[in-house]
Amino acid sequence: MVDSLTVTPSGELPFAFELRKQIPSELVLKNTTKEKQAFKVKTTAPKKYCVKPNTGIVEPGASLTVTVMMQAHREVPADFEACKDKFLVQATPSGGSTDMAELFARGNENIKETKLRVAYVKSKKPSTVLEEALPPPPANESPAEERVRLQKEVGLLQSRNRALVNDLNMMQKRGGKIVRGFTLLHILLTAILAFILGRYL
C-alpha cells in the first residue's frame, strides 16, 4: 500500500480465467490524504492488458476505479498456476499539476509505489462450448417448432466443430511440436461430437 493512495485489492490482481474471452478486473484507488494525488498504472506485459484509465488525479477523500482488461486467450497459459505478469501503481501529490510526464519523472522522491502480481482464478460460472452455442429451449414449444430448433442447433454445433478442427490443424502446423491447449481442444471437440451423436442420431 502506498502512503498516498490505498490500492484494493492488495498483493494480487485476480482474473477469472475463461478461454476465448476478454477478462476484466478492477483496481480501486482511494485517496486518504487532504491533497490531490496523481497516479500511474504500469504493467510488465503492456500488449496483454488494456488499462483504463492508466493515469489520472484522485481528489482528496475520493475513490477511483481502474479497469484492467486481459486480452482473450486461445489456450491455457503456460504459467497458469503462477502467472509472471505484474502491475505497478505509482502515486504522488499532484500539487495542482496535470503533467503526468513531469509528475512521474525519474528522481521524484515523492513517488510511492504498490506492486501487484496477476493471479488466474477459476471462473465461478464456467461456461462450456455447448452452453455458449445452445440457447435454452423455449417453454411449451410444439413438435414442429422443436424440430426446427433442433435442426438449427445441429448446424450451430457443426459450425463450432469445424472451428475447433481448424484450431487443431493450426496447432499441428507449429513446427510439429505439441503445444499447450491441444488436449483441451481435443476434449471439447469430442464433447461436441458425442453430444450431437447422442442427442440427434
CATH topology of the largest domain: Immunoglobulin-like
Mean pLDDT: 81
The amount of beta strand, in percent, is: 25-35%
Decide which structural class fits the backbone: alpha+beta
The portion of residues assigned to helices is 25-40%
The beta-strand count equals 9
Give the N-terminus to C-terminus distance in angstroms: 60 Å
How would you describe this structure to a colleague?
This protein has 201 residues and is of the alpha+beta class. The protein has 2 domains: 117 residues, Immunoglobulins (Immunoglobulin-like, Sandwich); 61 residues, no CATH class. It is 29% helix and 30% strand. It has 4 helices and 9 strands. The strands form 2 sheets. It has a 5-stranded mixed beta sheet with strand order 2-9-8-4-6, with no helix packed on it. Helix 3 packs antiparallel against helix 4. It is elongated.
What are the main properties of this structure?
PapD-like_sf, transmembrane helix, elongated, 4 helices, VAP, alpha+beta, transmembrane, MSP domain-containing protein, 2 domains, 201 residues, 9 strands
Question: Secondary-structure blueprint of this entry?
Answer:
Layout: E1 5-8, E2 12-17, E3 23-31, E4 37-43, E5 49-52, E6 55-58, E7 63-70, E8 86-93, H1 100-103, E9 112-122, H2 129-133, H3 143-172, H4 182-200
Parallel strand pairs: 2-9
Antiparallel strand pairs: 1-3, 3-7, 4-6, 4-8, 5-7, 8-9
GO cellular component, one term: endoplasmic reticulum membrane
Keywords: Membrane, Transmembrane, Transmembrane helix
Main location: membrane
